[in-house]
Every structure is written in structure tokens, then in C-alpha cells.
Amino acid sequence: MKTTITINLGGIVFHIDDDAYEILNTYLIAIEKQFLSEDERTEVMSDIEARLSELFTETLGEKRDVIMKQDVSTVIEIMGEPEDFMDDEAAKESARSTDRGYKRKRMHYKTAKRLYRDPDNRVLGGVCGGLSAYFNTDPIVFRIIFILIALGMGSGLIIYIILWIAIPEANTTAQKLEMRGEPITIENIKKAVRDEFENVKRNMKF
Q: Measured on CA atoms in the order 198, 199, 200, 204, is the torsion positive or negative?
């Protein structure tokens, strides 16, 4: 008989057995220790937990209710390990001091692109920015297309508004990575958050 624990991960409640919980908890602690900035740590951990909850939901499906040790190991293979993007000395220290109960693996998973509105590259609603990310083109191309449709047929604005309503906005770091078709790993989440903080700092300079 195994003990199960109830956890809240990314706003979703899961049941997890005690062995799996120990691995997951140690994994999250190892990630969190890398961040000195409170703002950066909060942002990254929030995005990572949200992504973990999505993966566990997909893994469990409707067949099982409890997260097992193998489920955690599988999700860690997808997300990547903290040592994969530490500097060499920090990675050695982590390997010496941490025994998480799973083997290190380098796995590469492709992320299917999804269409989102891009809040970081928008003039109005980010529709053209999202379309450009999805089709790997310059957003100016889609802006010109909508302008020409509006001038020629008069329906460009209506089409834009419909797409604005229908296409969700990429609010989280994971969604922004998915919008660009980049793997949603802790390495990419960390890099994206740091780039965003740097952009904010640059924009705040006078």
C-alpha cells in the first residue's frame, strides 16, 4: 500500500504517490536554487509549474488519477534537468549534493506550433504578430494584407476583429515558446524570462 499526497501544481490539483512526490519536490527545489532575483525566480517557477501541470494532465488522461514515479521521470525528460544549463562548477556541485532518484537523460522533443496573438509584437491586438510567428514571416506582410483587404473589399477590419476574438493571446512564457515552435523546457523558459527582464530594463532607460 502506498501513501498518496494531494498537491496544487500550476493551479491544478493532482494526487501523487510519496515516491513520485519526493522526486518532483527535489527537482523543483534544484531549479529554484539557481535564481538569485526574486522576480525572476517567481516568474520562471510559475511558468515551469504551469507547464508541468499540462504535461501531467496529458500523461494521466482519463485512465489514472495518481501521478507515479515513472510519470515524473517522463516529464523531467521532456522538461530537461537543471544541470543541463548550469555552468560546469555548479553542475558538479549539484551532482555531488543531490540524489533525485532518476537517471539523467538528454531528450529532445519537438513542440508543435500553435497560433496565438503576440502581445510583445502588436499594433492593435497582436493578430499579425501571431500570424507572422506561426508562418515565419515578417508581421508587416500581414499588416499590409489586412490594409489591402480593408481598402479593396472593406472587410479587412471585420476579419481582423474576428481573429482577435478567436485567437487566444500568448500570456505565459510557455505559450510564447509554443507560438514560435520552440521546445517548452526549463532552459528555454529561463532564457525567455531573462530576455524579457532585460528588454524591460532597456526600455526603462532614458
A: positive
**Overall pTM surpassing 0.85 (yes/no):** no
Tell which residue, 135, 153, 131, has the closest CA to residue 143: 131
Q: Residue 42: its pLDDT value, please? A: 81
DSSP state of 153: T
Q: C-alpha grid cell for residue 72?
A: 515524473
Sheet holding 12-17, edge to edge: 4-9, 12-17, 66-67
**DSSP-based three-state secondary structure for 125:** coil
Q: Low-confidence residues of the chain, pLDDT below 70?
A: 1, 36-39, 83-111, 197, 199-206
- Report residue 34 as a C-alpha cell: 539557481
Which amino acid is it at 94?
A: S
Which three cell numbers, joined as nine digits, stand for 10? 500550476
The C-alpha cell that represents 146 in the structure block: 489586412
pLDDT, residue 203, reads 62
The C-alpha cell at 57 is 494532465
Pair 74, 59: CB distance under 8 Å? yes
How many residues are there in the chain? Answer: 206
Note the pLDDT of residue 115: 93
Q: Map out the domains of the chain as residue ranges.
A: 4-109, 127-169
Interatomic CA distance for residues 70 and 148, integer angstroms: 54
pLDDT at 94: 47
